[in-house]
From TrEMBL:
Signal peptide: none annotated. Belongs to the glycosyl hydrolase 31 family. This is Glycoside hydrolase family 31 TIM barrel domain-containing protein. PANTHER family: ALPHA-GLUCOSIDASE, HETEROGLYCAN GLUCOSIDASE 1. It comes from Protea cynaroides. Pfam families: Glyco_hydro_31_2nd.
Amino acid sequence: MVNDLHRNGFKAIWMLDPGIKYEKGYFVYDSGSEEDHWILKADGAPFTGEVWPGPCVFPDFTQAKTRLWWSKLVKEFCSNGVDGIWNDMNEPAVFKVVTKTMPETNIHKGDAELGGYQNHSYYHNVWFIQKSFFGNVLVSEYFLVILNLKALYMLINPQGS
């Protein structure tokens, strides 16, 4: 399909959400679980919240090992001919809760230089920046990343901004 779009002069912008479907047997969920990449609830269990795929877990981008894991996944994702990513739900957004995000009591096992082991209220704004930059921007210097709907104007500038 991407090749057909390109042949007809179109660019392919694919949506990429950080919420990973909570499903054993799904390779992204399984590798993230094996390598301890998820944000935790206050009780130490992985936090699950509802987003587009249904129940999801969320990578802890405050850890360098998680950012590296994510960037490898994004690079593979982009190897299919995609021209850009719509970086959606990176607030992080969570459905079916009043706050529309994860609880402030969730735990991040952040790297020491970011602040170390802290709750989500400490890392809320840092989380999406780490995800966006290390997970997406570093995939390619020429790659267009759309951070949210308000940034769709970037589509008119194919070099990004």
